[in-house]
Structures are given as structure tokens and as C-alpha cells.
Amino acid sequence: MFADVALWSLRTFRDLAEAQERPLPYDVDLVDQRSKYGEGLLRRADDQRQRQKSWEDEQSERHQEAVRRRQEERRKMEEIEVSADTKLLTITMTSLIAMNTTPAISPQGRAGAT
Q1: How far apart are CA 3 and CA 49, in angstroms?
Q2: Other residues' Cβ atoms within 10 Å of the Cβ of residue 35
Q3: Residue 19 in contact with residue 12, Cβ under 8 Å?
């Protein structure tokens, strides 16, 4: 759509600049300058769009990489938490087993005495 409007505008300025009837209600030099300016914009438009697309692709790639890094960090933290929970459970179970196999100490301090 932009290109269509730009081309229409360029043609309009060219037609105004090439008008043969005199006197004209506008400055021909100004219209000619606008026509040349429009041509320059159209020449640069493709290059500018390509640079913009490259920049947007780069930003999108950086964003995706950041998302992947965060997901990997989350996964590693979850693994560490699971590992720590497993170790704690093992220590707790070992302690409970050890408590059940240790002879009870009586209040007098002798094992097995009641």
C-alpha cells in the first residue's frame, strides 16, 4: 500500500512539474524538488525495509535465546531442588532407621535397664 501511494504521489508531482500552461498557481521549482525528493525516498525504501527486517529478526533471535536460557536455568534449578529433596529424604530415612535400631537408654543411663 505504501508503495502505491508513494508512486501515485511521485506521478502527481511530476505531472505538476511538467505542466505547460502558464501562469501556474504554484512554484514549479518547489514541485520539481518534491518530485526528486520522492524519487530518492523510493530508491532508499527497499534498503531501509531490509535493514529494518534484519534488525527485527536479530531482536527476535535475541529474545528467543533469552527465553531458552531462562528455561534451561529453571530446569537446572528444579533438578537441584529435586536432588536436594532426595538427599534430605535419604538422610531423614537413615536417621529414622538408626533411631529404631539403637537400644533405648534408661533414665539411669544404662542400656536395657528398666
Answers
A1: 12
A2: 20
A3: no
